[in-house]
Amino acid sequence: MNETPPEGNPDRFLLSRPDFDKLAGFVNGHTGIRLPPVKKAMVEGRLRRRVRTLGFADFRAYCTYVFDENGLSQEGGFIIDAITTNKTDFFREPDHFRFLTEIALPQLALEARIGFSEPLQMWSAAASVGAEAFSMAMVANDFAQAHKGFRFSVLATDICMEVLQKAATAIYPDDMVEAVPAAMRQRYLMRSRDRSLAETRIVPELRQRVRFARQNLNDAVYAVPRTQHVVFCRNVLIYFDKAMQEAVLSRICECLLPGGYLFVGHSETVAGFSLPLRQAAPTIFLRL
């Protein structure tokens, strides 16, 4: 973010290194996300408007309030929401969705008969505004239409309440849904009647299949049913150090039933970790 500094001292809306270190330490301690010094400009940009809105003269005054006057209880949630990255797309890393369609769902449902006596459960573990979760739901609903009696549910979690609230509306800009395959767009998307809004909404049938909830991956225990058959935890591990990555993956494995599948991002790995997983395909793992 590039903003013209306010009149007066041009440094008043720049973070000092000690204040940045305090903010970075809070974020890391609460979420496990690392903020190295090169991220200082990013933190300044994401918090600058908040500092002005609250009427503080500069970042020093804001940080004094946050850390010296018990302001963290008031501001902590906002800081986490502002700092966490929420990049997402529909059908991002399409090889994963091909595997889900062609291998994972047929194996789980047709061979293991999961989804017939009870719903097959899937979890999007860093859901952001919900594009990944709804992509999973589209694939599963197509499968359900082809296999009578198959049922499924999707749990979508994130640490950021703001993005979860957006996700729950299931409304997306038209350009964001272009990655959805054309046939699925016809089945699962509704254009806004007000075309000037350039918005699209997920159909009610699919919205009913997805539940949104807050979950901090840094928590010692996850408030997630330990009955998951498919877990997508993609492009979030890269923000953690190795110890945190292993801890998160270990807790995810506790929620994933044997025979279930874990999907991680194409730039992520589980190599070197002691986990009950066997590689099924690049960045896709079978729970042992």
Can you offer a commentary on this structure?
This protein has 288 residues and is an alpha/beta fold. It has two domains: 67 residues, Chemotaxis receptor methyltransferase CheR, N-terminal domain (Chemotaxis Receptor Methyltransferase Cher, domain 1); 194 residues, Rossmann fold (3-Layer(aba) Sandwich). Helix content is 41%, strand content 18%. The strands form two sheets. It has a seven-stranded mixed beta sheet. A three-stranded antiparallel beta sheet has the order 3-5-4. The chain is globular and about 65 Å long. The N terminus is likely disordered.
Rounded mean pLDDT is 92
What is the terminal separation in angstroms?
Answer: 45 Å
Q: Can you count the beta strands?
A: 10
Category by helix and strand content:
alpha/beta
User: Considering the protein shown, what is the CATH homologous superfamily of the largest domain?
Assistant: Vaccinia Virus protein VP39
What is the 3D form? globular
CATH architecture of the largest domain: 3-Layer(aba) Sandwich
Which fold name is given in CATH as the topology of the largest domain? Rossmann fold
* Beta-strand percent range: 15-25%
* Integer tally of domains: 2
The helix content is: 40-55%
Order of helices and strands: HHHHHEHEHEHEEHEEHEEE
* Count of alpha and pi helical runs: 10
What profile does the largest beta sheet have?
Answer: 7 strands, mixed
Tell me the strand order in the biggest sheet.
Answer: 6-2-1-7-8-10-9
Rg over C-alpha atoms, rounded to the nearest angstrom: 21 Å
Extract low-pLDDT stretches: 1-8
Question: Which CATH first-tier class of the largest domain would you pick?
Answer: Alpha Beta
